[in-house]
Amino acid sequence: MFQSLRQLIKQSSVYYIGMMIISLSSFISLPILTRIMSKSEYGILSLVTLTTFLVVVPAKFGLQNSAVFYFDEFKLNKRKDGIDTYYSTLFWGSLFIALSVALIFYTAGDALVKYLPNKSLVGFTGIIAALVVTEAMIIRIKNFLRIEQRSALFVFIGIIKSYGRIATGLLYFYFFSRTVQGFLIGTILTNVVLLISSPLYMEWYKEIRIASFSSKFLKECLYYGYPFIGIEAASLLIKYSDRYLIDYFLGPSEVGVYSVSGNLCMSISTGIFSSIWLALSPMYMRIYRTEGENKTAEFVSASINILLLVSIPIVFGLSVISREVILVLASKKFIDAASVIPFLICGAAIWGLIPLYATGFYIKKKVNLYNRIVFFSTCLNIALNIYMIPRWGIQGAAIATLITYIAAFILVFKVSFRYLEIKTDFIALFHYITAGVIMYIVLSEMKLDVNISNLVLKIISGALLYLTIVVSFNKRLRISIKKLFLKQSLHE
Q1: 316: confidence class by pLDDT, cuts 50, 70, 90
Q2: Fewest CB atoms within 10 A around its CB: which of 171, 181, 329, 348?
Q3: Domain boundaries in the chain?
Q4: Given this model, what pLDDT does residue 5 score?
Q5: Contact present, 83 and 207 (Cβ < 8 Å)
Q6: Long-range contacts of range 281-286, CB-CB < 8 Å, 24 or more positions apart?
Q7: How many CB atoms lie within 10 A of CB 160?
Q8: What is the predicted pLDDT for the residue at 312?
Q9: pLDDT higher than 90, residue 98
Q10: Which residues are within 8 A (CB) of 226 and not within 5 positions of it... i.e. 6 or more apart?
Q11: Whole-angstrom Cα distance, residue 399 to residue 343?
C-alpha cells in the first residue's frame, strides 16, 4: 500500500505543482480583469464561462470516463482489437459529438438567450460554440495523457493553455476589441493553436486512423459514459447555478462580485483536489483489478487522509485573510466578495472530497445511483438559492451552496460505504482541525497593513504553524511520512 501511495504522491506532486502553477494564472488574471472590466462585465464573463462548461458536458458525452475504464483492456491485450482502435475511436467519436453539440447550441442558443431576464448572454452563442469544440478536444488530448500517466506533458499543456489564454485574450482585448467578446476570441485562438500543434508532441497521434474507428467500441464507450453526463452537469449546476440565479434576482453586477470569491475558491480547490484525483483514478482502478477491494479501500482511505491534511489549513487560512486577499487581488471595488469566502472555501473543500468517497460507485459501476444523489443535491441547491438569494443576497447564495455540499457529502458517504468501506482517520482529523483553529486565532491577531508582502507573510506563517502543530502531535503521521519517503523503511 505504501508503494502505491508513494507512486500516488510522485504522480500527484507533478499534477499538484502544475495545478498550482495553473491556479496561479487565476491569481494573475484576477487583478487585471477586475480592474479593466466593470463588475457587470466580469459577471457576464463568468456566465459565458459557466455556460461553456455546461455545454462541454454533453460534448464530451462521458467519454473521458470510458477512456479510463477501457484503457487497460487494450494496453494489456485483453481485446482482439489493437490500441489503434482505442485511440482512433475515442478521438474521432469525440470530434463528431463535440461538433454536433456545438452546432445544436449555436442553432438554438440565440433563440433561448433572448428570453433570459437580463439578456446577459445575447451575442455570445457563436463564441460559446467555438469554445465548446476546442475545449472538448483539448480535454480529449489531456485525457489520453492522464491515462498514460504522462503527467509532465499533461501539466505542460495545461500551463500553456492557461497562460496563453490570458495573454492572447488581453492582447486581443487591447488591440482589437475592448469588450468581453474580444477577450474570449483571444482565448479561442490559444485553443486552436494548441490543437493544431498537438501532433508535434503526441506520439499516439500515429495510432489515429479513420480505418481503425470502431462503431461497436464507440457504442460501448457511450453506454458506459452517458450516465456521467448527468453527474457532470449536476455537479456544475451545484457549483455554479447560483450565478444564474444571482443574475436573475440581482443582475450581472452582483454576479461579478460573487464570482470573484467563487472563482478564487474553486481555483484553490481545483489545484488541491484535481492533482490528487488525476493521479488517483487510474491507480485505484488498477489496484482494484490486480489486488482486490480491500487494498483499494485502504489506498483510497490513505489518500483522503492526505487531502484532509492539506485542505483543512487552507479553509481556516483563507477564511481569516479573506478581506486582505480581495483587497490585494481584486481592489476595493469587489470588497463585498470577502464576506462569502469562508462559506465558499469550506464548501469547495467538502465538494472536492466527495469523488474520493464515491469511489465505490465507480468501481462497482453504480454510477446511476451516484447520479441520483447528485441530481437530488442539485435540486436542493436551486431551491435553497431561490429562497435565500432574494432575502440575503450573495451571502445567501454562498450559505445555500455550503448546505448543499454538506448534504451531498453525507448521502455519498452513507451510500458508497455499502460498496467500498472507506475509513476516515478521526484522530488525525481532530489534530488537523485543532491545528487549523489555532492557526486561525494566531493569524487573526496579526494586525498588518494590507499589501502583497504582508499577505504572503501571513500565508507562510500560518502554514509553518499548522505543520509544526500537526507533525508534533500526530505520531501516526510521522510514521507514515517515514514509510513513504525513507527507502530503508520501504524495504523492511
Answers
A1: very high
A2: 171
A3: 2-424
A4: 47
A5: yes
A6: 281/68, 281/362, 282/68, 282/71, 282/146, 282/147, 282/149, 283/4, 283/7, 283/8, 283/11, 284/359, 284/363, 285/68, 285/69, 285/72, 285/362, 285/363, 286/72
A7: 15
A8: 93
A9: yes
A10: 61, 62
A11: 6
